[in-house]
Amino acid sequence: MSIDTDTARRVAKLARIRVAESDLPALAGELSHMLTFMEQLNEVDVEGVEPMTSVTPMRLKRRADVVDDGGYPDRILKNAPDAREGFFAVPKVVE
């Protein structure tokens, strides 16, 4: 499939990308190349192939989901411009 400059201009507009008029032919060529590659991928027979998320089958290491304060709240609050009673203090924004 071949993309012309008018289609490339429309795609750029839909994607909210400003493309100079002189760059449209190059963009059209790149988009055509991408579509050609996708057409090649569609020709691959994947019947019976299970989808996978990794090249090697492995389980991700998981940690226990435990709520804690990190163990050093004083060190964290030391960097705050204003801290009161163990919390970050921020200016009031709603009246």
TrEMBL record:
PANTHER family: GLUTAMYL-TRNA(GLN) AMIDOTRANSFERASE SUBUNIT C, MITOCHONDRIAL. It comes from Ruixingdingia sedimenti. Its EC number is 6.3.5.-. The keyword Nucleotide-binding applies. The keyword Protein biosynthesis applies. Gene3D superfamilies: Glu-tRNAGln amidotransferase C subunit, N-terminal domain. InterPro entries: Asp/Glu-ADT_sf_sub_c, GatC. Keywords: ATP-binding, Ligase, Nucleotide-binding, Protein biosynthesis. This is Aspartyl/glutamyl-tRNA(Asn/Gln) amidotransferase subunit C. It catalyses: L-glutamyl-tRNA(Gln) + L-glutamine + ATP + H2O = L-glutaminyl-tRNA(Gln) + L-glutamate + ADP + phosphate + H(+); L-aspartyl-tRNA(Asn) + L-glutamine + ATP + H2O = L-asparaginyl-tRNA(Asn) + L-glutamate + ADP + phosphate + 2 H(+). Allows the formation of correctly charged Asn-tRNA(Asn) or Gln-tRNA(Gln) through the transamidation of misacylated Asp-tRNA(Asn) or Glu-tRNA(Gln) in organisms which lack either or both of asparaginyl-tRNA or glutaminyl-tRNA synthetases. The reaction takes place in the presence of glutamine and ATP through an activated phospho-Asp-tRNA(Asn) or phospho-Glu-tRNA(Gln). Belongs to the GatC family. It holds the Pfam family GatC. Heterotrimer of A, B and C subunits. It is an enzyme of class 6 (ligase).
